[in-house]
Structure formats: C-alpha cells, structure tokens
Write a structure and sequence with these properties.
137 residues, Metal Binding Protein, Guanine Nucleotide Exchange Factor, Chain A, eight-stranded mixed beta sheet, three-stranded antiparallel beta sheet, 5% helix, binds zinc ion, zinc, metal ion binding, Mss4-like_sf
Length: 137
Amino acid sequence: MAKIEGSCLCGQVQYASMAEPLVVALCNCTHCQKQSGGAFSVNVGIPKGSLKFETGQTQVFADRGSSGQAVYRHFCPNCGSPIFSDVVSRPGLIWLKAGTLKDTSWVKPTMSLWCESAQSWVHQPDIQQFRQGPASV
Ligand SMILES: [Zn+2]
Ligand SMILES: [Zn+2]
C-alpha cells in the first residue's frame, strides 16, 4: 500500500506516490502563511515525477521564492486546497502539503524553515531550525 495517498478538501483531486518520503519540513515563510491561511505549512519532500493523480488536476499559481526563482504552487481549482509546491531552486523534489495526506500518523518534521517570520506564539519543536531557507517551500 502506498504510504503517500491523499486528496484535497472536496475530493476532486486525489493523488498517490509509491516513493518513500525524503524529508518533512515545516515552513514559516510569509508565502506559506498566506497560502495555507495558517501559521506554517508542513511539507513532505518526495521525488519529482513519483506523484500520480488518480482523479482531478491541479491549477498552478506561479509564485516567486526568495531565491528569485519560481515556486509553482499547485492547488485544487474547485476547493482551493494547496496540494504541493514545485520549488525550482530545489530540483528533483516536490513538496506535498502534509495536511492533504490520508494517513498523517508517520509524519515527523525534522527541520523548520524561515523561523525569522514565524508567528510569535509558535514554539518551534526540538528540530533543526533555519532563520531562512535552504529554500522557500
Ligand atoms: Zn478540491
Ligand atoms: Zn514557505
């Protein structure tokens, strides 16, 4: 059974990947706050190309990361749920939004990015912390 399976809020977009997740990172950047409507995003890095859509298709917002390169933010065109980001400055990976996973029991972030723009009430977990990137996700 695929570890990585999920959908958007309305269920129109359903995806799966047979790959093992490579990294789980929190991102406190202002763009992730805007896009998620929350304090940070939870991103699961998986090999680009391993993600298959079972139903539906995402729409893309071409954002720009701090590197100046594009961050393609894919979302459900019907309900607006963010599904994944494709960060051009970090090739080979895409970043799934962990809140869209069917099973989140295995999700354990190991790094927190963009802590300098974290909301003041957020207590960072005891994991590697970066004031800024490696790259905006
Ligand atoms: Zn949807
Ligand atoms: Zn971010």
